[in-house]
User: Which sequence fits this backbone?
């Protein structure tokens, strides 16, 4: 009888300890999510000037604060969604200035800039973008004719663009930027690939699921044609930090 009582008391004590330690564990996990987000390539590179507050409770993240534009708002949410332990993201970020109206020249210009931003084969920082009546004019320097042509191709694949006039000059041979060896965290890679596929007109409607492990990207989802599937792989493979793309997308059979 005494033994039974002691055993019962012990189980109650253990249960109480577990209950007490659960919030502590959750707190540590939530703190790790918040600190991990701050250390990502995306937050250090593209969102460093924004004022973003990250609050996580049991893996459910809420984002508040002020960001420059819709692009940064979406980018922050996509980055958090790719961090281990995150169950959901409630994006309550506000935008500093009102976004341009859809399909306006300013809206198209921003879309082109954002589309070029993550691609390593073009140079977004050296490319000037001007839009008038849906016609994009590109200026600046390209390191080669191939890069100039690819910049035209990427700009033309943005929703709302009617035509592209590429006035970029081809500079002399320049030292290649060391991007292939640059270490970028998986959450940042996943966010960049998602945003890239979203802003390209050819892949915006694919609803592709993206997973990244040690720089290797896996694509899941459905494409209407083999061409769409190939484009998704091409765009993802040209994202900074991607080492390899495993395209596991299915192709919808007609009818």
Assistant:
């Amino acid at each position: 009888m005494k033994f039974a009582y002691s055993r019962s008391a012990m189980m109650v004590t253990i249960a109480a300890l577990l209950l007490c330690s659960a919030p502590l564990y959750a707190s540590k996990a939530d703190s790790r999510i918040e600190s991990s987000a701050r250390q990502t390539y995306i937050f250090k590179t593209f969102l460093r000037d924004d004022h973003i507050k990250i609050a996580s409770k049991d893996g459910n993240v809420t984002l508040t604060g002020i960001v420059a534009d819709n692009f940064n708002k979406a980018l922050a949410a996509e980055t958090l969604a790719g961090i281990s332990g995150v169950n959901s993201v409630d994006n309550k970020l506000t935008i500093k200035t009102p976004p341009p109206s859809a399909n306006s020249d300013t809206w198209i210009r921003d879309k082109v800039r954002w589309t070029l931003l993550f691609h390593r084969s073009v140079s977004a920082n050296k490319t000037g973008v001007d839009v008038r009546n849906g016609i994009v004019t590109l200026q600046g320097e390209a390191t080669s004719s191939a890069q100039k042509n690819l910049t035209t191709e990427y700009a033309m694949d943005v929703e709302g663009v009617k035509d592209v006039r590429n006035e970029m000059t081809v500079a002399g041979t320049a030292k290649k930027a060391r991007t292939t060896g640059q270490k970028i965290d998986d959450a940042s890679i996943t966010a960049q690939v998602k945003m890239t596929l979203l802003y390209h007109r050819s892949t915006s409607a694919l609803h592709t699921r993206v997973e990244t492990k040690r720089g290797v990207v896996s694509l899941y989802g459905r494409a209407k044609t083999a061409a769409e599937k190939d484009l998704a792989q091409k765009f993802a493979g040209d994202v900074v930090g991607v080492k390899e793309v495993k395209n596991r997308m299915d192709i919808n059979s007609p009818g």
